[in-house]
Specification:
- By secondary structure, the protein is an alpha+beta fold.
- It has helices spanning 5-8, 85-106, 133-148, 181-201, and strands spanning 11-13, 22-26, 31-35, 41-44, 49-55, 59-65, 70-76, 115-120, 152-157, 163-168, 173-178.
- The chain contains four helices and eleven strands; from the N terminus they run H-E-E-E-E-E-E-E-H-E-H-E-E-E-H.
- A six-stranded mixed β-sheet has the order 1-4-7-6-8-9.
- Helix 2 (85-106) packs across helix 3 (133-148).
C-alpha cells in the first residue's frame, strides 16, 4: 500500500538501532501500524496510522491535540536511582516527555490543547529488578503532566499484568488489551536489557535519549 503524503510526515524517534519503531500495513485494521518499543517516540497527523506498543513496567504516554487532529506516543522506562541517581532518573523521564511534546508542537499541535492518556507501570514477573519501578514510572508521569498543566483524560496503570495498547493519534482514541504470560516474559527481558544498557553506559551530565 502506498504511503500517503501525511504518512510521510510521520515523525519517528527511537534509541539505538536495536530499539526501533516497526511500521507495517495491517489489513485487518485497514491502517498503517507503527509499533514502538522502549525508547521509542512517534507523532502522526495521518488518520490511517495506528500507533501500538506492549508494556510491562514501562509507561506509554499518549498525547493528542483534538483540534489539530494530531497525536503521539512515547514508551519509556526510568533508570534505576540510588542516592543522587534520583535526579538523573527524573531528568531522563523529563527528556522522554519533552521529546514527545516538542514533536507535537513542531507540527501543528498547541500546548494548551494537549490531552493525555497513560498506560503501563505494571509489576510483572521477571521485570527489571528494581523494587517498585513500575509504580515510580506511574508517579513520575502523573506528576510531570500535572506540573505541565496537561490534563490526563484516562489512565490504565499499575497492577501485575502487561498491556498491549493501540492509539489512534488523530482522534485520541485508545484500546487496551491484557496480554499473556509468554509475551510478558519477552517484555520483561526487553526492559531488563534496556536497564542493563543504562547501567553499563551510565547517564552523566546532560541527558540525551536519541
Amino acid at each position: 500500500m502506498p504511503i500517503t503524503p501525511r504518512a510521510r510526515r510521520l515523525q519517528q524517534g527511537s534509541g539505538t538501532p536495536d530499539i526501533a519503531a516497526n511500521r507495517y500495513h495491517d489489513r485487518q485494521l485497514g491502517a498503517e501500524v507503527v509499533n514502538i518499543v522502549v525508547g521509542g517516540c512517534v507523532v502522526s497527523d495521518d488518520p490511517n496510522v495506528v500507533i501500538t506498543t506492549t508494556l510491562g513496567s514501562c509507561i506509554a504516554a499518549c498525547l493528542f491535540d483534538p483540534v489539530a487532529a494530531i497525536g503521539g506516543m512515547n514508551h519509556f522506562l526510568l533508570p534505576d536511582h540510588n542516592g543522587d541517581r534520583l535526579s538523573i532518573s527524573s531528568r531522563y523521564g523529563s527528556a522522554a516527555m519533552e521529546q514527545l511534546i516538542n514533536r507535537l508542537l513542531a507540527a501543528t499541535g498547541r500546548r494548551d490543547r494537549l490531552r493525555a492518556k497513560i498506560f503501563g507501570g505494571a509489576s510483572v514477573n521477571g521485570a527489571p529488578r528494581s523494587a517498585g519501578i513500575g509504580q515510580r514510572n506511574v508517579e513520575f508521569v502523573m506528576e510531570y503532566l500535572a506540573a505541565e498543566g496537561i490534563p490526563t483524560m484516562s489512565w490504565d496503570v499499575g497492577g501485575t499484568v502487561a498491556r498491549a495498547v493501540r492509539f489512534y493519534p488523530t482522534s485520541g482514541r485508545t484500546q487496551r488489551r491484557l496480554i499473556g504470560e509468554e509475551t510478558v516474559r519477552d517484555i520483561a527481558r526487553s526492559e531488563t536489557s534496556f536497564m542493563d544498557r543504562l547501567r553499563k553506559t551510565g547517564i552523566d551530565g546532560d541527558v540525551e535519549l536519541f
